[in-house]
């Protein structure tokens, strides 16, 4: 047993009704693709002052210093976050409200990323908490309709469940950055917040651990061998390690086709199980020989000596 800081759990969160709503929420989001889920939340930011709290003075005399800054103005961060990082954010002077919420999403639904994809695409889901003005008499139906017209679903978190919103982790990182850069936070608060959001990368959002750059060799079944440079990334869904690469071999001649299988009697029975080859499709991910779970052989088709085999 060790001494730890006690985390307070609201009594209401343990009531049967709230537990049931939390389980329903988990059942709903478990069917969603992680890349289609976007969390939204707001957080207030009070400007730090850069004034020292402690100083030196002769014994028996108080310590004085001319006050540098007296501002304690509050800003509000509106943040939309997904596994790909911060999709959209803005900074308001003062508190937020229902009108600002609608203006935020009116802009968000029209945003396009650098790669040409929309920040909010059809089939995506936006999750937010139960803040009072989120359920405003006019705000909630207008926001629901606005998102539905773009094919986006609005889903509210169950009560007393802030852990289901990833924006909370982002706000922690943002405020830590502001504490470490107090002068910038005081003089250019909005710029400092935008700068902090740049540190919330896709790797951090997906909880990956990225190692230092290193050189390695990449070889394929066609005996091609190239030297590459990239990072090892752990903590991915495949329960393995990814190695970043600026370019990978794209020899599509190694991809088996139905036409090729029909030439060999021992492969003809699996011809219909081979998907058609997309000649225009890109190759962005290669599975190496080191993750045995992904390469486990479930069925095997062998033939005469020198003939291709399938597994």
Order of helices and strands: HEEEHEHEHHHHEEEEEH
- Second CATH tier, the architecture of the largest domain: 2-Layer Sandwich
Query: What is the count of structural domains?
Result: 2
The main β sheet shows up as:
5 strands, mixed
State the total count of DSSP E strands. 10
Q: Can you tell me the residue ranges where pLDDT is under 50 for at least 5 consecutive residues?
A: none
Structural class call reads alpha+beta
Write down the overall geometry.
Answer: elongated
The CATH H-level superfamily of the largest domain is: Ribonuclease H-like superfamily/Ribonuclease H
Q: What does it look like?
A:
Pfam families: DDE_3 (PF13358). Residues 37-188 form the Tc1-like transposase DDE domain. It is a single chain. The chain contains eight helices and ten strands. The radius of gyration is 27 Å and the shape is elongated. Helices cover 23% and strands 18% of the residues. The chain has a five-stranded mixed sheet, with helices on both faces. The chain folds into two domains: 14-53 and 73-209, Nucleotidyltransferase, domain 5; 250-310, no CATH class. With 311 residues, it is an alpha+beta fold. A hairpin with a 5-residue loop joins strand 7 and strand 8 (225-230).
């Amino acid at each position: 047993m060790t001494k730890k800081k006690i985390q307070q759990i609201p009594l209401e969160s343990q009531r049967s009704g709230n537990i049931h709503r939390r389980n329903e929420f988990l059942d709903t989001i478990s069917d969603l693709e992680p890349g289609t889920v976007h969390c939204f939340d707001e957080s207030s930011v009070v400007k730090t002052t850069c004034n020292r709290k402690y100083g030196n003075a002769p014994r028996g005399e108080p310590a004085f210093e001319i006050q540098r800054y007296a501002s304690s103005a509050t800003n509000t961060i509106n943040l939309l976050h997904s596994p790909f990082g911060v999709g959209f954010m803005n900074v308001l002077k003062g508190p937020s409200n229902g009108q600002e919420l609608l203006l935020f999403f009116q802009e968000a639904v029209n945003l396009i990323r650098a790669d040409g994809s929309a920040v909010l695409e059809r089939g995506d889901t936006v999750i937010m908490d139960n803040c009072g003005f989120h359920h405003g008499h006019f705000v909630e139906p207008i926001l629901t309709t606005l998102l539905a017209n773009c094919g986006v679903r609005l889903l509210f978190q169950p009560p007393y469940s802030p852990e289901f919103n990833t924006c909370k982790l982002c706000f922690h990182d943002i405020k830590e950055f502001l504490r470490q850069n107090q002068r910038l936070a005081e003089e250019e608060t909005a710029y400092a917040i935008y700068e902090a959001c740049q540190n919330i990368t896709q790797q951090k959002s997906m909880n990956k651990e990225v190692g230092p750059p290193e050189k390695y060799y990449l070889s394929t079944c066609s005996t091609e061998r190239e030297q590459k440079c990239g990072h090892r990334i752990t903590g991915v869904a495949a329960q393995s390690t990814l190695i970043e690469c600026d370019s990978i071999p794209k020899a599509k001649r190694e991809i088996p086709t139905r036409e090729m299988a029909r030439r060999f009697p021992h492969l003809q029975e699996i011809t219909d199980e081979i998907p058609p080859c997309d000649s225009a499709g890109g190759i962005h991910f290669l599975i190496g020989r080191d993750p045995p779970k992904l390469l486990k052989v479930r069925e095997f088709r062998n033939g005469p000596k020198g003939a291709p085999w399938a597994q």
